[in-house]
């Protein structure tokens, strides 16, 4: 099966998908793409604009996962809004949902954070993430606290079962006000829990769930 993993990050959603598929990952930050490639050496990793890549290669794949940038939609905007610092929500999120819904022939899933506004298109809520898809996603019975927004770097590594300790980061590709550990924490905070990624992948293809219990 050919899979497109957009805004791939460090590959939290992809971690448990296995190695039997042909996976193309698109990530525009070369430092993050380097870590992803180290985790998944068999994947085809492309450093490019994921939004544009989707438009040009839409129907070359059987399954598409997209995790567009979330800061402009997040409830973390509230403090800035109170200080009069406003910004538009990035509508690429909904552009991709609409494009996939009406133009893509395979299975797809779009992920983002819980927004400060009522979603324009109704999503599925799992933990602290919204998911839009063209297949039914079973509810997940949480085994651990999924609200890790205030978690430490080490707590997040344990939660995702992803270790970033060995990686050296070139800060020029990130916000310069962050130190290295803060950057790594942000990478983990932005990642989808691997068990959730597998659960959704299996729901797309009707595979029996072995990793998580679901509600009846």
Description:
Helix content is 30%, strand content 15%. The protein is of the alpha/beta class and 216 residues long. The protein has a single domain, classed as Rossmann fold. It has a 7-stranded mixed sheet with strand order 3-2-1-4-5-7-6, sandwiched between helices. β2, α1 and β3 form a beta-alpha-beta unit. The protein starts with a strand and ends in a 12-residue tail after the last helix. Mean pLDDT is 88; it is low at 208-216.
Characteristic terms for this protein:
216 residues, single chain, alpha/beta, Rossmann fold, 7 strands, seven-stranded mixed beta sheet
Q: According to CATH, what is the class?
A: Alpha Beta
Question: Over the alpha carbons, how many angstroms does the gyration radius reach?
Answer: 17 Å
> Total helix count?
7
Helicity, in percent?
Answer: 25-40%
From the helix content, strand content and strand pairing, which structural class follows?
Answer: alpha/beta
Distance between the termini: 29 Å
The dominant shape is globular
Q: What does the main sheet amount to?
A: 7 strands, mixed
> How confident is the prediction overall: mean pLDDT?
88
Q: Total strand count, please?
A: 7
CATH architecture descriptor: 3-Layer(aba) Sandwich
Strand content: 5-15%
SSE order, as H and E? Answer: EEHEHEHHEEEHHH
Low-confidence stretches: 208-216
User: If you consult CATH, what is the topology?
Assistant: Rossmann fold
Q: Give the strand order, joined by hyphens, for the main sheet.
A: 3-2-1-4-5-7-6
Q: Supply the number of structural domains.
A: 1
